[in-house]
Amino acid sequence: MEQRLQKIIAAAGHCSRREAERLIEAGRVSVNGQVASLGDRCDPQAAVVAIDGKTLPRQEKLCYLLMNKPVGVVTTSKDPDGRRTVIDLLSEVPVRVFSVGRLDYNTSGLLLLTNDGDLANRLAHPSHEVDKTYLVRIRGKLRREDRQRLERGVELEDGITSPALIRHVRSKGSHTWFEMTIHEGRNRQVRRMCEALGYDVSRLSRVGYAFLRLDDLPVGHYRELSETELRSLKNEVAPK
Ligand code: URA
Q1: For residue 4, what is the enclosing H or E element?
Q2: Are residues 106 and 219 in the same domain?
Q3: Which among 94, 113, 217, 229 could disulfide-bond with 65, CB atoms 3.0 to 4.6 Å apart, if both were Cys?
Q4: Which of 14, 101, 104 is nearest to 50 (CA)?
Q5: 175: which strand partners?
Q6: What pLDDT digit, counting tens, does each position of 60-92 carry?
Q7: 86 by DSSP, 3-state: which?
Q8: Nearest ligand 1 atom to alpha carbon 193
Q9: What is the DSSP letter of 215?
Q10: What is the pLDDT of residues 108-165, one digit of tens each?
Q11: Are residues 221 and 104 in the same domain?
Q12: 174 lies in which domain range?
């Protein structure tokens, strides 16, 4: 199926759509050996697209996976310390995918994996404010004033966070479980927000990403997104 050239270049992970448009306008992009113009379309699985004479890898079938990541695996595709990666868990996926954002080694839950660089970049871009919901277990009780601080935003070393949405789930024995929804994606953000208030996070799992939920997908398993889910996800981050 034919697609706009800037979309093909962005999906290959080369640069953003806007930068790709600039490259096309500057006459630096060719399709099957002919200099391309803005507005040109081609079939990414058949055409030879080159930038400054260097051929882009031909687009593989686009793949969109939702995984329930276990604790004890890293989200990078290679780990210098030789730890297991989420890619090691993807048997029978014939294309190379990467994770959209990351979850810590000790965090489990919903992780999207794709080879669509354009969509991955847009989902990860802070301007789209995609909601991410975490189930958090802390030792002790969450005090009312601390819940309010999480809901107002917490001062971290990299600045104050946006307000979180908190929903109490349950207290059991010496632990409390609650859901926290944030739309930023800073490194270890949930743990750092809780630690800043003196709480020790003893379990963390992402249970929601935008409207997507883990439902009953077992830990360590993955499934493809349905066409409806994919369409809705693309809509969430469509250029306005
Ligand atoms: N916040 C964290 O602290 N860890 C994660 O893995 C994701 C969000």
Answers
A1: strand 3-4
A2: yes
A3: 113
A4: 14
A5: 139, 172
A6: 788 999 999 999 999 988 889 999 999 999 978
A7: helix
A8: 3
A9: T
A10: 999 999 998 889 989 988 889 899 999 999 999 999 999 999 999 999 999 999 999 9
A11: yes
A12: 131-209
